Amino acid sequence: MKKRSAWLTLFCIAWIIGSCDGVVGKRKALSKGQRIYLEHCQRCHGAHGNAQLNGAKNLQYSTLNMEERVHIISNGKGVMPAFSGNLDAEEITHVASYLDSLPVAP
Ligand code: HEC
Q1: What range does the domain containing 21 cover?
Q2: Could you tell me if the CB of 38 is within 6 A of ligand 1?
Q3: Structural domain tally of the chain?
Q4: Which residue has the higher pLDDT, 73 or 22?
Q5: Ligand 1 neighbour 102 (Cβ under 6 A)
Q6: Are 65 and 45 in the same domain?
Q7: From the CB of 103, is ligand 1 less than 6 Å away?
Q8: What are 33-52's pLDDT values in tens digits?
Q9: Which of 8, 33, 72, 98 is the most exposed place for a label (fewest CB within 10 A)?
Q10: Is the CB of 79 under 6 A from ligand 1?
């Protein structure tokens, strides 16, 4: 009998861990570009790209092409810091293309 409740406890623990995994899985579903954006860009550009803090441009209205974005993100411009020291070329490409899918603010 004792043994059975031990198994039951184990089963419950496994089940709880299993459901936590679901949460981790959802977090992973954020695209790489989005994760980089939230970590490095949100503080000036805001979650929707339109916060315009510290004089940051509204990214929802940016007309720059990929090449121009990558250039600004890598080298910075005015108040915006250069990210080439923090992010590698692949990460910069990911975040630059993420700008196309910024959620439009209500
Ligand atoms: C310290 C604040 C700050 C941070 C952090 C920041 N930016 Fe900026 N960003 C600015 C400012 C200010 C400008 C306007 C630069 C100018 O034109 O003088 C700008 C401009 C831009 C532009 C050009 C928009 C246009 O249409 O001209 C892009 C693209 C951009 N940022 C992307 C990013 C990305 C991607 C990140 C994160 C990797 C980021 N920024 C992080 C402040 C910031």
Answers
A1: 1-30
A2: no
A3: 2
A4: 73
A5: no
A6: yes
A7: no
A8: 999 999 999 999 999 999 99
A9: 8
A10: yes
